[in-house]
Amino acid sequence: MSTEEREEDTVRYEIENNIAWVYYNRPAKRNAQSPKLNRQMLKVITELEFRDDVGVLVLGGEGPAWCAGMDLKEYFRETEAEGLHGVRKAQREAYAWWERLRWYQKPTIAMVHGWCFGGAYGPLFACDLAFAADEAQFGLSEVNWGILPGGGATKVAVDLMPMRVAMYHAMMGENLSGQDAARYNLVNESMPADQLKARVTAVASKLVEKNWATVKYTKDAVRRVKEMTYDNAEDYLIRLQEGLNWFDKSDGRHVAMKQFLDDKTFKPGLGHYDKNKTEV
Question: Most buried among 38, 166, 226, 236, using CB within 10 Å?
Answer without folding.
Answer: 38
